[in-house]
User: Fold these one by one.
Assistant:
Number 1:
Amino acid sequence: MKRMQNANILISGMRGLGLEIAKNVILGGVKTVTIHDQGVAEWVDLSSQFYLREDDLGKNRAEVSHPRLAELNTYVPVTAYTGELTEEYVQQFQVTEPRLGQ
């Protein structure tokens, strides 16, 4: 739990699964969450991404999901990133490997 509280998390892809992961991580209480997506909301996204609305069609999925996800836990800063995921950018986030038996 201590490592989780100090983790800066990057979640790429704000379709159905990515949104669900982001929601759970934010509610779980990490240090920061950055959501990433370079795509725009399409009709098909409305069936699986419950934070998108018809008015959001054609807009970046990360940008329109950002304020709605940020409301979930005011103690977790949430930011949206729509640029390219470079190695330099990704290095600022923590990734931990699950270890069996711990």
Number 2:
Amino acid sequence: MTDPNQDADKESKTPETTDADWAAALSEQTAQTKQANQADGLQQDMDDWASALAEQTAAIGPAPEDTAAPAAPSAAAHVFQPLVDSAAEGDSDIDLIMDIPVQLSVELGRTKLTIKNILQLGQGSVVELDGLAGEPMDIFVNGYLIAQGEVVVVEDKYGIRLTDIITPSDRLNRLNSRR
């Protein structure tokens, strides 16, 4: 069924009004399409946030009250694959850094001199160091103290025998004692 009043309205409109009606309808449809696309984009953003939150929760583990539930696999395990395929090959990880060159140095002792005293040095001069005879020498790798040792002579060459490996906690204690 059609409304007779509606048919009369269509016949009485001029082409200009029809064009204006079409333009209005088209702009309304375009606006609705934009709103729908924005809503889809917002929904996509919300989905992305939800999945990121789920991955984070899985990586951290279950909340304390959910300890009875099994832990979900870590998202980090999917992103960061292990360098080796099995635990038996775990020793090969160190092989990646074995060829990196480092500087090893041994320090007999230290002293402070004025420029005047340095200029007075000549062949045969003796410089007194703060290290005592028989005291272990400090061994540095790239400037970091890692061990102590004693001097040895092997086939007319000097060497160093390690007597003590410095642990990280020992390094901190040494730094605190110097202050």
